[in-house]
Structure formats: C-alpha cells, structure tokens
Amino acid sequence: MNNPNGSQPNSSGAVRNNNRNLVNDSGNNNNGNGRRSNRSLGKADDFDQSVILQQSPVFSRAIVWAIVGVTTVTIIWACVAKIEEAIPAQGKLEPQGAVKEVQAPVAGVVKTIDVKEGEHVEAGDRLLTFDQTAAEAQFQSLQKIRESLLQENQFYTNQLNGANPRLVGQIQLRVPPEIISLTENRASLIAENRLYQAQLEGDISGVGLNPEQQLRLQSIVAERRSRVATAQLEVEQLSKQLSQTTVQLANARNILSVNQEIVRNIEPLVQEGGFARLQFLKQKQEVTSSQADVIRFTQEEQRLTLAIEQAREKLQNTISLSDTDVQAKMSGNEQRISEINSQITKIIVENKKKIREIDSQISQAKLTLKYQDLVSPVSGTVFDLKAKGTGFVANTSEPILKIVPDEGLIAKVFITNRDIGFLKPGMDVDVRVDSFPYSEFGDIKGKLVRIGSDALPPDQIYQFYRFPAEIKIEKQSISVNNGQLGEVALQSGMSVSVNIKVRNRTVMSIFSDLFVKKLDSLKNVR
User: Fold this and answer.
1) Which fold has domain 86-96+408-523?
2) 3-class SS of residue 420
3) What is the pTM of this model?
4) Region Disordered: start and end of each range (predicted)?
C-alpha cells in the first residue's frame, strides 16, 4: 500500500511515525474538528490516502504467552504423566488340563452310544456299551481249551512218572493217536527193562511184573540156568576124567619105575650068564610099554586140562553172553525211552506255551467283559466322537472320543523373542476374544502364569522365533449386554489377542525413544 507522498512504508520507524500522527490527529479532533472535516472533504477528491491497521500489542502478547504456557504444560505433562506399555500377542483358548483322549480298553463292537457330540458329561458317566456276545463265547472256548491242555500235560507228566497209559481213556483226553502209541511203547519198554533187570539179578519173584512178564521171566531164567548147568556138567565130567587120568598116570609112572629097577638089577646077571637073556629082553619090553603108558596118560592129562579150561571158559561165556545181551537190550530200551521222554517233554513245553498264550487271551477276554461299559474318566464336554452308530468297531490304538475337562480354560499365546525382555509371571493381561468384538463386549482380565524357557523355531504357521506363554483368565464366559442377556461360555479353540501390561512409561520417554531411534538411524546413512 502506498503512503500519501507516494513512498513505500518499508520500515518500522515510518509505521510508528504514522501511528503517532494518527494519534495526534485524533487528539486534536476537539479543537479543529470542523476545520479538518472541511479540509478532508475538500481534499477527498484530490487523492486517496492509505490507512495501515495494526493489532493491539496486548493481544499479541496473550497469544505468545498462551503458546508458551501450553507448551510448558505439555512438556511437564509429558514428563510426569505415565501410560501403560503393553506387549501384544496372539493365541487361542485351551483347557487348563490336557484334553482326555478316551480309548477303548479292548477292541470290540459298539452296541449302544449314550452321548452326543458337544454333550457335557460327569466323571463316571457311561459313554457307550460294547457287544459282549463274541467275547463271552470266546472266553468259554478258551477256558475249555486251557482245561484240556492242563489235563493233557498232567497225563504226560504221569506217563513220565510211570503211570498206566490206558488212563487216557478214563479221563476222556483228546490226545493224538501217535502220542498214545508213544506212551504205550514207552510203558512196554520200561516193563521189558524191569524184566531184564530181574533176569540179571536172578530174581524170579516177578515183583512189579504182570503175569505174562512173569512167565516170560521164568522161561528166560530157566533157559539160562539150563545152559549154565550144561556147561557146568561138562566141566565136572572133564574134571572127573582128569582125576582118573591123573591116577592112571601115577600108576604108570610107578610101574615104569619098578620095571626100570628090575632091568638095572638083572642086567649084570645077564652079562655074567647067570640070567636068561630072553627073560631080560621081556623085562626091557615091559619098561618100554610102561614108558608108552606114561606118555599116553600125560598127554591125556594135558588134553583134559585144556578141555576143562575150555569148558570153564564156555561156562563163563555163557553167563557173560547172556548178561551182555540183556544189558545191550536194556541200553537200547533206555535210549528209546529217552527219545520218547524227549518228545513228551517237548509236547509239555509246547502245551505250557499254549497255556500262557491262552491265559493272556483269557485275561483279555475278562477285561473285555469287565469293560462292557466305557465310562468318562473326567467331567467335561464330549467332542470328536468317532462312533456314529451301533456296529462301530473300536480298537485300542485310536481314541474313540475326546473330552475337554471342566478345569477351566487358559489362553496359550506366543510372544516374539524381541518382546520377551521385560516379561515375567504375575503381570496383568487384557484378553480379548476375537469371537466377541472388543468395542461391544470388552475384554477379560488375566494373569501371566508361565513363560517358556526357550524360543521355539519358526514353522509353517509362525514364521518367527517365539516363546510360548500361558495366561490365566478371571472369567470363563463373556457377558452379553452387561449381563442382561446372560453369559456366553468360552470354548476351547477360540482365538484371542492379548495385551500384556509390562510397565508404566512417561510420554516424554516414548518420544525420546523415537528421537533416539531417528538419531541412531542417521549414523547408518552413507
């Protein structure tokens, strides 16, 4: 805007002068008001005069002081006022106790189902019933088989102890025919060995033998005695002959000695002619004959001695051969008995193994009969019910249903490893259930009760390192319209968002952190 002189008001001094002029002019209004009015009206047509309006300095000062005051109060408030610092985390509601997986204690067919999906049950309530027809029939069959095997083993044990194999017919056992034949053969071999033993001992009383065996023993003993008697008789006869021959030999030697003495006595007489020579020759012939008798009897004595030795050896051989033959037969029988015993023992062992297996099956059958009704182990809510109707075949390896215990729900969340620093059990937590909007239903108070000791590695669901944490919530339900419409119970599996209250911080510290971060970021600028 131009002044009346056509110059620019570019300095504060000019402005102040103009202001003073305006003030002075207004002060002189009383003295020459008429004159100025006339003068102004007279000059109005000559030119236009610009007017500069300036704000009052009081208002300016007020604005300045207001800004300073607000700034000061804001800074003081930022330094003094504190707000809650919270760490967010996400997770879901889970039962405080582990979900109970209810498995069938034994395999079976479901007869009736007494619960439905989502139904609440108490501990001990019947969940379902199994069909026991097949189990009862199996139990009875196993009992019969076990009893039969026990009786069979008792029979085999008695056979090993020497019982009569014909008892099998009396106790109605289903023993295989070949086993019956083995036991009968074994009994026959044992009886035959008793016969042989009595034969060796020469005992003809027949104690422990049946009549047939007694007759056989008597016949064998009689035959053996006959052969021994024959051999003994031969030895006796030869001994008598030897005695006679010995006597004859002694006589022959005496005769020879006499004849030789006669020859020696008459030989000088014959040389002198006092005795007939013919008579002398006859006497020498007698000597020669006597010598021949001595030689003959000597040879006969030797022959009889040898014959007696042979007869005695024959007698001994007769006795020895008989005993050896009996012992060989007994040894063969013992070997055969041992083989049969081994087979019977093997059968007993196999039967005992079968009995153990059957005992296990019987125990299983008893367990099946005992657990005809499947009851709930805890109070809770049924879910994931696999059996949809009767006839469902349950096994022991997979759960037939699950029960969420009534022990209360807890929030299980995951906290990033960068937010874990100030967290500790006991901190207050605001829990917001995602199924119920926070603006309408609010949140639930809780306490941080547990923090994992180590971070879990990333996986497909969580792409970051995280610490598991558990939060105990104060309520197990959400109020609808401040409780006017009742309470809605929380359910396991609901997703939640939580804010863990770490500490109270001043507003200034928050801004200072931002400033420090920005300042630190400038250090990394290249």
Assistant:
1) Elongation Factor Tu (Ef-tu); domain 3 (2.40.30)
2) coil
3) 0.40
4) 1-42
